[in-house]
Amino acid sequence: MRLWIFVFTMIWGLIACSPKESTLSPSPTSSPVELTVDDITIKLTSATGWRAYSSDSRITMSYQDNRLNDIIVNIWTPEINLNEYETVVDAAFDIADMMEDEQGINTTQPTAITWRGYDSAYFLVSNDEPRTSMIVVTQVTDETVVALNIRGIIADFDAIRDRLAETFATFTVNDIALGNDVFMTLPETLILPSNNPEAALDPSSEP
User: Fold this and answer.
1) What pLDDT, in 10s, does the model give residues 17-72?
2) Following CA atoms 96, 157, 203, 87 in sequence, which dihedral angle do they give, to the nearest 10 degrees?
3) How many CA atoms lie within 13 A of 44 on its CB side?
4) Residues 61, 163: contact at Cβ < 8 Å?
5) Which are the contacts of 8, defined by CB distance < 8 A and separation ≥ 6?
6) Pairing assessment for the beta strands 71-76 and 59-63 based on DSSP bridges
7) What are the CA-CA distances from residue 73 to residues 27, 76, 98, 172, 200 (Å)?
8) C-alpha–C-alpha distance, residues 78 and 80, integer Å
9) Are 131 and 74 in contact (CB under 8 A)?
10) In terms of pLDDT, which residue wins out, 150 or 203?
11) Lesser CB count within 10 Å: N end or C end of the chain?
């Protein structure tokens, strides 16, 4: 059941979760934003030019770029029972398979990575919209997973890498500093699922 909740949240995030752009202006200076759910607290200081707010369940940020796709980032703590999996990477495979098999959403095969030493995985997702999302799941404690849904991913990841890195520089979970390391380890070029149905066999090109 919890995995279904996660998948539903992912799909909802792909089609409906956008910042309140009509009422929220870009920050002229760096702005702190915080989310506390149960005993988990996520903090970061969004960089200049980003819109950022937190609701009861997530942090949402956006950046408008006239040259590239707008970037929308959702951060939350999914309810995944990690006792059912050996690693968070195994959970990511289940999530991707469920999204593709049950919902018909194109995904790439999850890739195992580390974020400041914590086990993580990422995969790309596309639906009928022109935007592609990157899903990142990170296990920060035995029972705590943090998830990111980054909309506006393009094949030339280098073009948006610095933009993401600058606003995640102060990213912490329960005062554990994760920072922006994960974005610096991703390949320069990504194979998007919408452009290549065989991408499920290879989520990224060679770094």
Assistant:
1) 444 443 445 554 567 899 998 888 999 998 888 888 888 888 999 898 766 668 99
2) -50
3) 30
4) no
5) none
6) antiparallel
7) 15, 10, 22, 16, 23
8) 6
9) no
10) 150
11) N
Residue 61 one-letter amino acid:
M
Q: State the Cα–Cα distance between residues 156 and 72, nearest whole angstrom.
A: 17
* Beta-ladder partners of 149: 74, 135
pTM of the model as a whole: 0.82
Query: For the segment 30-40, what is each residue's pLDDT rounded down to a tens digit?
Result: 678 999 988 88
- At 38 the three-state DSSP class reads coil
Q: 78: closest CA among 155, 23, 13?
A: 13
Q: Which CA distances in Å does 137 have to 15, 91, 188?
A: 19, 9, 20
Which residues, other chains included, contact 126 with Cβ-Cβ below 8 Å and sequence gap of 6+?
105, 106, 107, 132, 133, 192, 193, 194
Check if the beta carbon of residue 135 is closer than 8 Å to that of residue 149: yes
For residue 136, CA distances in Å to 14, 30, 34, 74, 96 come to 14, 24, 19, 11, 11
- Locate tokens 């059912």: which residue? 84
